[in-house]
UniProtKB/TrEMBL annotation:
Record's protein name: PBP1A family penicillin-binding protein
UniProt catalytic activity: [GlcNAc-(1->4)-Mur2Ac(oyl-L-Ala-gamma-D-Glu-L-Lys-D-Ala-D-Ala)](n)-di-trans,octa-cis-undecaprenyl diphosphate + beta-D-GlcNAc-(1->4)-Mur2Ac(oyl-L-Ala-gamma-D-Glu-L-Lys-D-Ala-D-Ala)-di-trans,octa-cis-undecaprenyl diphosphate = [GlcNAc-(1->4)-Mur2Ac(oyl-L-Ala-gamma-D-Glu-L-Lys-D-Ala-D-Ala)](n+1)-di-trans,octa-cis-undecaprenyl diphosphate + di-trans,octa-cis-undecaprenyl diphosphate + H(+); Preferential cleavage: (Ac)2-L-Lys-D-Ala-|-D-Ala. Also transpeptidation of peptidyl-alanyl moieties that are N-acyl substituents of D-alanine
Domain called Penicillin-binding protein transpeptidase: residue spans: 309-581
Stretches assigned to the Glycosyl transferase family domain: 56-226
Keywords attached to this entry: Carboxypeptidase, Cell shape, Cell wall biogenesis/degradation, Glycosyltransferase, Hydrolase, Membrane, Multifunctional enzyme, Peptidoglycan synthesis, Protease, Signal, Transferase, Transmembrane, Transmembrane helix
Length: 695
């Protein structure tokens, strides 16, 4: 009973309370403006791609107030003619209009027509809900009549234009003029005004970006009403219809535009977006961006509609981020997983460990054994890294260990390199990692973003040169008529020889390793890369590159959870990478990676990593950083009595077969049985905190 009484009291006094609020507002503020005054001379930030193709605009988010003198007289007349022809005659309510509406309501048997004046519409938008009820209508009428006593007609019209919704997120005439025509209100033409005057009746249907036929019909209705009340002549109506307004279409690549916006804010401050007046040459290729968005969406949804993903493609020479997709929905202003989502990279971290090992004198032919090993974690806990197959494959060269993503060998290799040394090395490559003495880094347990990982791979792909990714190439200030360049920033962080030899090792990932599904692509176009799959199949990665482009793909759930057996970098992410890269590399030369000085090739026996002899049953041409190549002949096959070779100087290749070594190099698939694990990419977790094969 008490709650009903409270409701009745509230219903009785709510109009009174609103009237008191209005009275207070009038007495407290001399100006009717509730937002900052719109600056004059504003124009939006226009964005073009790296080939100077128009992409879209970056608009201010703040609402502004426009005084009545800056609203074109034609627009004011058009709105009054369409919405409330007796606006300047009535005192807030139009009795004739209400009578007409009541007749229609009776005929239709419901509250279909409101007979609302401009003042009533303003009251409804500013103070009331859109509920269609007698009670709400009574409140609306009472407030409208009070409004007419407190404000002039021009003040009411000014408030109306600044409060009404014009569709597509545009509140008020300032946002509407900017969004649809990239103008300030005072710059609007009669054709543009006739479009905007028709919007308030149904912003979703009649906004300038709506269905062309419906929008055009609504514009004609507006002009016809103006003719009927003698605001324009029939000849003027025909002239306006003959020269329709040009509406600015929504921009492309909304997610990339958001990246550019954030970069501008970081560089110039938040005020830059509100000031506008800039032309930005972005680093993106708008066609590749569209391809990236579509390819990622299709590839991810094919696996599971609830999955998310990210893709980044960068030009290795310039650092231009040609495409960047932060999610399958690609929402404007949404969470960009390519730059902000930190996830475990799994085995995608391994190429950096192998590169660090090469820098310390290891070679692709160096033999290591993956027999089980245990590490004391303290407090009586022991960590035992395992391979995916939960078995050992014995001794194998590092080249095969990387291709097959052997966990145990990678952990042992990191132990030899030293965790702190590796963290320093990764930092130089552009990847910040934690630095405790934790060998689990070998399996990618530290979290990184896709952008971080692509950046760290770039020196491997680019001859040891790390090029910072950029999304903005240059900016033109239209007011000052001046350009500001954002030049490519690059620096050597790795020896060209180390980068080349690591890349040659990573090629095998695509031919017989964990991404062997890309074999056909790699045959047609030299490429290298690495898969990554985290424990329990939570994240799937593939980062790969050609001599011109590097692209990274991540797929997973926003709230990390297992994707199920088979949810791996090789199965999920690599196909997305291939589909995108076939388009991205089309028309580019299928050149191989440039071989630098300081790299030599010699013929070895892969079972001993020593120089091949005529008696070796299997030989292989292997690349070495000059000074690390073997000098002793295979002691297993008659090399004991042969004098050692001197290391080659200056990176000139040694002459393979110089001793008459028989046969051709064996392909990796036919390597000795004790060497390579199966080419699978499926890690598991044994449930006891033991990290399995992570790809």
């Amino acid at each position: 009973m008490l709650s009903r009484r409270h409701a009745a009291i509230k219903k009785l006094f709510s109009p009174v309370l609103l009237l008191l609020a209005l009275s207070f507002a009038v007495s407290a503020h001399a100006s009717i403006a509730t937002y900052p005054e719109l600056p004059t001379g504003y124009s939006s930030i226009r964005v073009f791609d790296v080939q100077n193709r128009y992409v879209g605009r970056i608009l201010p988010t703040q609402r502004y107030w426009v005084s009545i003198d800056r609203i074109p007289l034609f627009l004011r007349k058009a709105l009054v003619a369409t919405e409330d022809a007796r606006f300047y005659e009535h005192g807030g309510i139009d009795v004739r209009g209400i009578a007409r509406a009541l007749v229609k309501d009776v005929v239709k048997g419901r509250l279909a027509e409101g007979g609302s004046t401009i003042t009533q519409q303003l009251i409804k938008n500013k103070f009331l809900t859109g509920e269609k009820s007698i009670d709400r209508k009574v409140k609306e009428v009472q407030l409208a009549m009070d409004f007419e006593k407190k404000y002039t007609k021009d003040q009411i019209l000014e408030m109306y234009f600044n409060e009404i919704y014009f569709g597509n997120g545009a509140w008020g005439i300032a946002q509407a003029a900017r969004q649809y025509f990239d103008k300030n209100p005072e710059e609007l033409t009669e054709a543009e005004c006739s479009l905007l005057a028709g919007v308030p009746k149904n912003p979703g249907r009649y906004n300038p970006l709506g269905d062309l036929a419906k929008v055009s019909a609504r514009r004609s209705t507006v002009l016809s009403r103006m003719v009927a009340v003698k605001m324009i002549t029939p000849q003027q109506k025909r002239a306006i219809e003959a020269h329709p307004a040009t509406v600015i279409k929504p921009g492309q690549a909304q997610a990339y535009l958001e990246i550019v916006r954030r970069q501008l804010v970081e560089r110039y401050g938040a005020h830059v977006v509100e000031q506008g007046g800039l032309d930005v040459i972005a680093a993106l290729d708008v066609n590749l961006q569209k391809q990236a968005e579509q390819t990622l969406r299709d590839g991810v949804k094919k696996v599971n509609p609830k999955l998310q993903g990210a893709l980044i493609c960068m030009d290795l020479k310039t650092g231009d981020i040609l495409a960047a997709v932060g999610g399958v929905d690609n929402a404007k202003g949404g969470f960009n997983r390519a730059f902000a989502a930190k996830r475990q990279p799994g085995s995608a971290i391994k190429p950096l460990i192998f590169a660090a090992a090469l820098d310390q004198g290891y070679t692709p032919a160096s033999l290591m054994n993956d027999t089980p090993v245990s590490y004391n974690k303290g407090n009586g806990q022991v960590w035992r890294p395992h391979n995916y197959e939960k078995k050992s494959f014995g001794e194998m060269p590092l080249r095969a260990a990387l291709a097959h993503s052997n966990n145990v060998i990678t952990v042992k290799l990191l132990e030899s390199v030293g965790v702190n040394n590796f963290v320093t090395f990764a930092g130089r490559m552009g990847l910040s990692l934690r630095s405790p003495n934790d060998l689990s880094l070998a399996l990618g347990t530290d979290e990184v973003t896709l952008d971080d990982l692509v950046s760290a791979y770039s020196p491997l792909a680019n001859g040891g040169i790390r090029t910072e990714g950029r999304t903005i190439v240059k900016v033109f200030d239209r007011n000052r008529k001046s350009w500001t360049d954002n030049p490519t920033r690059s620096a050597p962080v790795l020896s060209p020889a180390t980068a080349y030899v690591t890349t040659e090792m990573m090629k095998d990932v695509l031919t017989y390793g964990t991404a062997k599904g890309l074999k056909n692509f790699s045959r047609q176009r030299p490429a290298a890369g690495k898969t990554g799959t985290t424990d329990d199949y939570r994240d799937a990665w593939f980062v790969g590159y050609t001599p011109q482009l590097i692209t990274g793909v991540w797929v997973g759930y926003d709230k990390p959870k297992p994707g199920g057996r088979g949810f791996t970098g090789g199965v999920v992410s690599a196909p997305i990478w291939e589909k995108f890269m076939r388009v991205a590399t089309a028309g580019k030369p299928a050149a191989d990676f440039a071989r630098p000085e300081g790299v030599i090739t010699v013929s070895i026996d892969p079972t001993t990593a020593q120089l091949a002899t005529p008696e070796c049953p299997t030989t292989k041409e292997e690349d070495f950083i000059a000074g690390t190549e073997p000098t002793v002949y295979c002691t297993k096959h008659g090399g004991e009595g042969m004098p050692p070779m001197h290391p080659k100087e200056g990176g000139q290749p040694a002459q393979s077969g110089q001793l008459g070594a028989p046969g051709q190099p064996a392909p990796p698939e036919s390597a000795p049985s004790q060497g390579e694990p199966p080419a699978q990419d499926q890690p598991t977790d044994d449930g006891a905190g033991q990290v399995e094969m992570l790809r």
